[in-house]
Amino acid sequence: xxxxxxxxxxxxxxxxxxxxxxxxxxxxxxxxxxxxxxxxxxxxxxxxxxxxxxxxxxxxxxxxxxxxxxxxxxxxxxxxxxxxxxxxxxxxxxxxxxxxxxxxxxxxxxxxxxxxxxxxxxxxxxxxxxxxxxxxxxxxxxxxxxxxxxxxxxxxxxxxxxxxxxxxxxxxxxxxxxxxxxxxxxxxxxxxxxxxxxxxxxxxxxxxxxxxxxxxxxxxxxxxxxxxxxxxxxxxxxxxxxxxxxxxxxxxxxxxxxxxxxxxxxxxxxx
Length: 271
Description:
Strand content: 25-35%
């Protein structure tokens, strides 16, 4: 909401973001690599076990010739991850010798457990080539729900990272729209000063209905222009995003005379 609360020059101005877009893009790249890699791992390691166990979850029986060649389970924050290597020297659960079958299974499920897991190898007599375990069958739906939640979270974070990587964050986006424009003052309502930046109320027409976070340097201070945490912001005369300003107005390429005039036009506090 534009306001004549401070005098700004009637000329195109350059916006000097306090935080470089490279930082946001670096964060976006990390998110894309980390969570994108997590999506690939879930699809390659966890999903095949869910698909295979779905077909045998009601027909799998203990396999007398089954062996666990190697197995490890790790628990962190109630999330259990298991990597188990299964083998069998028989085609089914009858104990009859035959071709050797080896299979790696990867489980991911939520559980509160102390100590070791006791695991038995299982197989469906109609599908002797697929090996599973009792812990995998008993916790099948737990595994399925955990997979969906982890996959949804990983995809969301990877998309968030991709957006940051492309856009460069709120300051880079604002600079693309406001740089070289005639800027006018506006009032922003400061919600709080956080470690990550300044949280401000959303402006009319913005898609950020719950407010917006502007990353700033730790030493930056907002320019308070009224009661109720009202701080100075600027926007283009033709419209666009409203960005907050620092107490020294250093984020605009003002001359010393223009900066002095701007401070002189600020309303004096009563008393």
